[in-house]
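Need the bound structure for protoporphyrin IX containing FE, inputs here:
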Amino acid sequence: MEFISLCCFLISSLIFSIFVLNKILKLLSFGNVKLPLPPGTMGWPYIGETFQLYSQNPNTFFASKIKKYGSIFKTHVLGCNCVMISSPEAAKLVLVTKSDLFKPTFPASKERMLGKQAIFFHQGDYHSKLRKLVLRSFMPESIKNIVPQIESLAVKSLESWEGQLITTFQEMKTYAFNVALLSIFGKDEVLYREDLKECYYSLEKGYNSMPINFPGTLFHKAMKARKELSKILAKILSLRRQMKMNHTDLLGSFMEDSEGLTDEQIADNIIGVIFAARDTTASVLTWIVKYLAENPSVLQAVTEEQEELKKNKEENGLNWADTKKMPITTRVIQETLRAASILSFTFREAVEDVEFNGYLIPKGWKVLPLFRNIHHSPDNFTDPEKFDPSRFEVAPKPNTFMPFGSGIHSCPGNELAKLEILVLVHHLTTKYRWSMMGPQNGIQYAPFALPQNGLPITLSLKR
Ligand code: HEM
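Answer from helper R.:
Posting the output first, comments after.
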């Protein structure tokens, strides 16, 4: 009996000591004082400041907050408590140095559509494994082999636009979609292109819809298309297994036995990569077409660079080495990524109470590094509203230029994106001229920043 009481006493003392130690550690880590929340306002109950954010250009909202409260401020939007950050150092802390304390976060409806097992939603071992596989397929060594096929897609796209009034963004989406399929399925891509396209286009219509899963709603149709996509992918997997061939594309990488991924995990990540690759690259290409048209001296410099390259080539067709001889065009891409900042910000969530630059970010709060504000701050870029590719003749200051994010979730497809842009710009500038139609000053957020109405243009062959 006495022994049992002694045990009870020891166990409760141990639990009490752990509790006290935990409290002391917390107090010590927050400097023994209850830290304040960052400055800012939370708006109306429930609604917060969502209306202020979405009733105007979001950048006006961010800029007025930064002016009032500085580079870290709190707000409440879309039903979430948020801390927004716009200093390069703070962005690095969230995305790189303390990335284990800030996990990626997305609305549940996005997870359901893309698939819960997709790379974006994960941290830790599973994320590292997927990242290794994706990086392996998109590193220069792997994608340099598909330059001729990318070029053929670019040439065919441009030929089909010739003499037409086109919506640049719509057409660039098709091009970026085809390049994404090529990088995922290799040469088999053409076999599945139409079926996958049909389902993927129905799925994307539901991305920004209300998550109401009743027959007839956009969300319901998108979920149906999602199931259909999984079926097509299951068919492709089974065909590849029967053929027992080694493939060096992304699907081949995912299917390696040693990786032990389930079919569901593979499907979620294929759909995820298409999602990450298509609208992003298409938006950037659309902005490049606009900026080149608006800046004739830049267009001339790019055209001369590309024509020179074409002239000096003995055989027809571009190769990987050629794409490394395009410094002016490369700077145009960098400046477009900065000026357009198609991804204005990203989302993270604090996994525990975090002390951050003297403030408390409570567990569960969202943290948004504001890429666009970092790219448009005069502290980081002189005359930031001016489109000036020559600014990239000198490397930007550390952490001030992050169009592809930073840290463990940064974009593994950035080399492929730059490659497909360079290839298309080569053929666009050496063979065609184009004119923009309709109003040219508006920006849409859908959700990526985009010229108004997707930039209608007419394109014709140079004489
Ligand atoms: C110019 C075009 C592109 C831009 C501007 C872009 C931008 C980004 C950014 C900013 C992130 C990080 C998001 C975050 O930290 O929350 C990201 C992640 C990602 N991107 Fe891209 N991207 C582009 C093209 C592509 C392409 C072509 C692919 C694939 C072929 C791709 C695949 C991915 C994937 C899989 C992730 C998630 C990585 C992870 O969570 O570890 N992206 N992208």
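Comments: Residues 104, 119-120, 131, 134, 138, 180, 183, 273, 276-277, 280-281, 284, 342-343, 346, 403-405, 409-413, 416-417 surround protoporphyrin IX containing FE (CB under 6 Å). The mean pLDDT is 90.
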